[in-house]
Amino acid sequence: MSKYLISFPSAAMVVPDGEWEAVGRDSHAVIDEAKAAGVYVFGGGIDEDVPPALVSADGTVAEGGYRQRVSPFVPSYR
Known about the structure:
Layout lengths: L19 H18 L15 E3 L5 E3 L15
Antiparallel strand pairs: 1-2
């Protein structure tokens, strides 16, 4: 079974003040759906000042992470 990491930098979280409640509600709905499907693994913040490391199934560690993909559905945050 394939495994995916969905992440984005904090700079991408540009949400107008009046929309935070809806963003919170919708994001919790996505997490609830993932948990119900048995595919939820982790939710939380990642320290952007710590360089990424890729840990393979056999325990080997390599500097860097997976190559980044930019979604065509999310506007650029740069």
